[in-house]
Amino acid sequence: MTDLLIESKQLEDLLREALPADVDYASARLVDERSEHLSVRQNKLEPIFNDFDTGVMISIWNGGGLGYAATADLSREGLATAVTQARHWASVTAGAMVATTPPTEHATGSYSSPIEVDWDTLPLTDRIELLQQQSRLLGIDDRIVDWRSSLVRREVDQLLITSGGARIEQRFSFVYPGLRATANEGTNTQIRTFGANAFCGQGGAELLGRYGFGDAASRIAEQSLELLTAPNCPTETMDLLLAPDQMVLQIHESIGHPLELDRILGDERNYAGTSFVTPEMFGSFQYGSELLNVTFDPTVPGQLASYGFDDDGTPAVRQHLIENGILVRGLGGDVSQARSGLPGVANSRASGWNRPPIDRMANLNVEPGDSSVEELIGSIENGVYLHTNNSWSIDDSRNKFQFSCEYGQRIENGEITGTVRNPSYRGISRTFWRNLKGVADANSFTVMGTPNCGKGELNQMVGTGHASPACLFDAVEVFGGEE
Amino acid sequence: MSNADQAYFDELITAATTRLIGDEVLLANVTGERTDFIRLNNSDVRQAGTVVQRRLAVDLIEGQRHVGGAFQLTGDRSMDDARLTALLTQLRDQRRLVADDPYLLYNTSPTSTERIEAGAIPEPDAALADIRAAGEGRDLVGIYAAGDTYSGFANSLGQRNWFQSATFNLDWCFYLQADKAAKNLYAGFDWDEDTFARKIEWSNRQLKALERKPVDLSPGEYRTYLAPRAMEELIVLIAGYGAFGQRSHATRQTPLLRMIVDDATLSPMVSISENTAGGVAPNFQSAGFIRPDAVPLIVNGQYAQTLVSPRSAQEYGLPTNGASDYEYPESLSIDPGSVATATVSEALDTGLFVGNLWYTNFSDRMACRTTGMTRFATFWVEDGEIVAPVNVLRFDDTAYNLLGEQLEGLTDEAEVLLDTSTYIERSTMSSQLPGALVGAMRFVL
Questions:
Q1: What pairs with residue A427 in β-bridges?
Q2: Which string of DSSP letters, residue by residue, matches A376-389?
Q3: Whole-angstrom Cα distance, residue A425 to residue A403?
Q4: CB contact burial A45-73 (16+ within 10 A = b; e otherwise)
Q5: Residues 101-140, chain B: which have Cβ within 8 Å of A?
Q6: B400 vs B303: CA distance, rounded Å
């Protein structure tokens, strides 16, 4: 199961031959995924799992119609069947389509995840032993009733060939480390995690060191115990300082999704929802305070959703979405830009070979400011500093949100004075970012990502990247859990 | 409906069994689908196509040591034989590196089953024509997905299980403007023009009600009716985070923690079960155990049983009841109550009629305190009559209130709700839920 299909000249020739020449546009997108799932729970290795997922999506635009066909049968006959299906769909949808303009780019190029330390230097037995070591560091107290360390490695090769001459080869290597400690006393259970929805990205074994995987286990185990005796988070309107691993979710839900052009165009209204952002807002809407600068940046080395080209073949470049607080650009690929007439980015992405591309976030980052985290804390009279998301909820227009975190720190008169448990806050996207009053500098800027962003019909789950420094917000409704 | 996929799987695993070494045991699961999909926006097509996939997952066991893997079957027998052989070789190599798994448990008493539900689903061209005709003059947005789905289990001990059905699922809205829409679902085995027409008519009526000027309600407590779809959003959240799983129960991570360590209860009106016999999910699981027709989870408001996977059975010394590794219900059922469904607005009298909730999550998981938004058809009702649609509201309340102290009644009809999820593949999960009349529900934003 180790032959790399992307290196098969024979398969590439078959894909090229399968694409019909008598249509407006045709493409074949081969996706070949290989992943290894390792997990140690309570110092016992759980079953190792190896996953392979390979197939091709054929897309055909013709005469105003569009059809897709996804198949795992990579034989000449299998590809021919898929092409026939896609052609049929293009035929029956002609004259009934929302979008009639196919992707315009026919680029040639390649992309590879940057790998500094090859996984061969950390063979399977060493990877298992690493997880065993972390597991032992987690299970340090009888009150820790469950604990787990995990490591998922995933390699994805993609080859996109279009009838217009495009040939784009991209090779991704993803790493998803994870730690979890669950502490309990009576009705109080506190869970601290590492990795999960923040520390994951592209690269090799060096990412474990870059993320501080080896240092995290003791810290989160101790913090889970600390939370057992911490007071409930206070309920009042106060300053809110968000750590980068909570900013991930704040950016994702209340900037990323509202700016997706397919939401604004209405494609997602039956499922993921619409957006409070409307087309006339681009170029003038004050999304946040002047401190807010947000970029779409697929060029950040090692970030989870970095790539050279999107799945329509559009070259990916860094663009500002929000500049000094003003909304300037949306998150929409070639097709959505043509439909809406709005400026967008190269973010047409599919979750795998069996789904068509739609507008996704990729890397969406808040650019650093010029305050140190210590200066931000020092400026707070009454507030909380929240870390690591554990709950997220937002309305279908991406406006009224409520988020909760695993770990909170009370800030009083410019100093951290203690830990608080079950912290939550709520607000409204349309105005929340205007209360941004402090953005930490590059020392706090942390490159992260979230692996499970769900959207689309058929449903699709993709990874998105988010990088951010700590950020300070004024006058936010903060509250705790049940007493 | 062809059973070619069933025969293919059987032959593939029978052949692989002959290539096992020594005392090896092979467990194999296949899930597959042939899905035609049509995605719509503004009554036109956004995307349409066909997905054919068949994923084979295997577990290669020797004694108490084992390793698993999966790959996509191509349908070409010689190629799939070769890939399976290569995978098994890789698993053998890795198995040498692992210790005995103390929690390994698989069914060693072969029990073969077969359930095949034939359907009468329309040709995709005809479905597209019907749907676009229904959407003419309307802003119809949604997804139609249809075709065969199947799950199979086989092991080298001779057990064979097969579950296959041909279904369709049209999940759509008629949009009025902005976030105001009438949501509906037509799903099943046999597409019927008259039934579809009735559902369209229902959506048209609801759209009419949405034309009234919407009201903004202030945060506060409101008497509320949660329709079955809103109940689904709540109960799926709670179940999804381990409310009924043995592992989350034993490790104190269940959202219903207060029921097991603090004697908290739900209303005596609430009885919840895993109702496999009444659902559309397979009655077998990935280690070959057959599920009982029903597992009582909550009985008259009291914690009853948990869902016990084979691994948890080993870990906690309990018998398995055929749960999946995730230990969440796949065919969840809440017993109906006595509130007349047909006149539920009258029973509500004055308050909020919530058709759908959205994006539920926890404010305080261990207290089972949940939050989420109203969505689609939510109306303010006075004296049993709809007065106006309500702009979206955020709720934040505990299950112990909503399904406990504040629960005034459940409707006398439980609606069968097929899961519309299509992440990775089309779901076979479902639920059977009544609506709930709640004396006071807390809204916060």
A1: A401
A2: HHHT-SEEEEEEEE
A3: 6
A4: bbbbbbbbbbbbbbbbbbeebbbbbbbbb
A5: 101-104, 124-125, 128, 132, 139
A6: 13
What is residue A156's predicted lDDT score, i.e. its pLDDT?
Answer: 98
pLDDT for B119 equals: 86
**Cβ neighbour number for residue B92 with a 10 Å cutoff:** 15
Closest CA to A255 of A148, A365, A163, A352: A365
The phi and psi torsions of A116 (rounded to 5 degrees) equal -95, -40
Task: Decide if A82 contacts A27 (C-beta within 8 A).
Answer: no
Nearest-Cα distance to chain A for B25, in Å, is: 15
Per DSSP, the three-state class of A261 is helix
CB-based contact A53 B42, cutoff 8 Å: no
Work out the angle at residue A359's Cα, subtended by the Cα atoms of residues A92 and A155, and round it to the nearest 5 degrees: 105
DSSP per position, A171-182 = EEEEEEEEEEEE
ipTM score over 0.90, yes or no: yes
- The pLDDT assigned to A1 comes to 53
Low-confidence ranges of chain A (pLDDT < 50): none
Helical residues (DSSP H) of B268-367, grouped into ranges: 310-316, 344-348
What would the pLDDT profile of B19-30 be if each residue is shown by its tens digit? Answer: 999 999 999 999
Query: Tens digit of pLDDT for each residue in B28-86?
Result: 999 999 999 999 999 999 999 999 999 999 999 999 999 999 999 999 999 999 999 99
Q: Is the peptide bond before A458 cis (omega within 30 degrees of 0)?
A: yes
Quote the pLDDT of residue B2: 55
Chain B residues whose CB is inside 8 A of the A69 CB are 49-52
Per the CB < 8 Å rule, is A460 touching B45?
no
Chain B neighbors of A266, CB-CB under 8 A: 41-42, 139, 141, 175
User: Of A65, A94, A268, A86, whose CA–CA distance to B40 is shortest?
Assistant: A268
Q: Tell me chain B's radius of gyration from C-alpha atoms.
A: 24
Degrees (nearest 5) of the Cα angle B283, B284, B288?
A: 165
Phi, psi (degrees; rounded to nearest 5) at B182: -100, 120
Q: What count of residues does chain B have?
A: 445
Of B139, B251, B444, the CB nearest to A145: B251
> What CA–CA distance (Å, rounded) separates B294 from B292?
5
Burial (0-12, 13-18, 19+ Cβ within 10 Å), B220: exposed
Tell me which residue in B141, B251, B367 faces A481 most closely, judged by beta carbons. B367
